[in-house]
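Check this.
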Amino acid sequence: MMNHGRSRLQVTKDSCPFLPPHVHLRFDDLRSKWVVLAPEKVLWPDDISVDILNLCNGQATVTEIVDGLAKDYDAPQDQIRPDVLGFLQEWCDKLLIHCEVRQ
């Protein structure tokens, strides 16, 4: 696969993920499921993915997202963190999530 000069953005605990303008998270009333709409893509994320995506507002860091999910799911942060980072990295690599680092 060609890189075309684009370097891979590494999602870290200090990243503030957000959905770019071309990606939309919507609830599909007909199917009673959440859907992600992107150019030439329709994705049907599972419930946990939707919970993560709903927290990707560009203000919260990955650490804050993990903290919130740990409370919501009553699970240890150390158990959740790798899965959240992996999910966000995959979506970032596919240009479905953008990240900035809060200053």
About this structure: The chain has a mean pLDDT of 92. The longest helix spans residues 77-93. The domain at 15-101 is CATH 1.10.10.1150 (Arc Repressor Mutant, subunit A). The first strand starts at residue 15 and ends at 18.
